[in-house]
Amino acid sequence: MIQQKTVNNLNENDINNFDVRSIMKSKLAIIIFSIIFAVINPRFARAQGVLQEIQKTGVLKVGMRKDATPFGYIYGGKWKGICPELMNGFKENLEQKLNRTITIKKLETILDEDSLQGRHSSVVNNRVHLECGPNTIRKNPPTGVIYSERFFTTGTYLMMKPDRRLTVNPDGFLEGILIGVLNDSLTKKFIDSRYQLAEQKVYRGASGRETAVKNAISGTIDAFASDGILLVGEAFRQGLKENQYALEPNRPLTCISYGMILPANDSEWQKTVNEYVVTKRKITTITDILTRLAGDTSLFIGVTISAQDKCSGL
Questions:
Q1: Tell me: the pLDDT tens digits for 181-217?
Q2: What homologous superfamily does CATH list for 47-153+257-311?
Q3: Helices (DSSP H) in 48-98: which residue ranges?
């Protein structure tokens, strides 16, 4: 017959075993909860705020893409673009704020979020303190990150061979016109809605923009729809002359705002970045940078001013 034990007849060994089991269960529960909490909310796993880390280490870790001309690219073995220039100014700003010398550590980021080098994952995992690039500000950012204030404005354009202007009219329905779009992009959603009678060729992967621009210039497709500044940037990267392609219409079809990617739940860092960004997004500041990069007659400046004129109320 099985003897049932009550609290009154438990011996010392029973009590000790019970205590050990209880402690082990409690510790296991805490560990499991901590792991789940960190996975669901990786932003809470940071041991300290970004400013405190920079104050301690003297290093500002910045993520930038190498394939995002004019925001970030390599020329002559050195980083060039809007983001390197903005970050140099931000470094000086932080040096004054923290009263110490700071070094910028530039780390490459990519579009593949399954990679440790992904734009958003690099910020979530504290590989970088912020990511600067053509990051469209979305209402619902990925878990663990937030976007800064807008630092750049562009819009959707159609890139094509100059002679295709006769057949590609953005004011019409573009019935039967073959338009290239990048997979899973906001531009694709816009084309789906605005030009329902057009045909589409979808480009995928990291080389999608490069291939689409080549196809648009060769006439394999009638036009390629994308962010105006990135269309000009890819043409610049490929060494194309400005008379080899056309952008339509004169003013962008949509307005697109870019922000820097920041860790969520670090309000002090967000405030620091935003205070700097709003002073540097003036059109004169941006065009000055673009002039130094590509000359004062570059299409970079034309598409940027056009977007600013249409979208300045954003």
A1: 999 889 999 999 999 999 999 999 878 999 999 999 9
A2: Periplasmic binding protein-like II (3.40.190.10)
A3: 50-57, 82-98
